[in-house]
Amino acid sequence: MAYAKQRAQRTHAPAPIPDLDALPPTAACTTEQVAALSGYAEITLQLWRRQNRGPRVTTIQGRPRYLVRDLREWMGLEPASAA
Prior knowledge:
40% of the residues lie in helices and 12% in strands. The protein has helices spanning 2-9, 31-38, 42-51, 68-74; strands at 28-29, 58-60, 63-67. The chain is globular and about 35 Å long.
């Protein structure tokens, strides 16, 4: 029981908000970073992944990641690619 209480009290520093202009198009962002950047909750992004909505997701080493180029396209910061 004490372990569960200690675990619940642990906190970690929030993910830094990425600067999409400074990052290369192939840089990968975590769900936590995209949530901070977009204002949507992490759970919303997770739900959208299951529903094939929201920004395009790339799986890297079994973990969901969002490429900067896909985020910029999703946010309307650059035109859609021809792919």
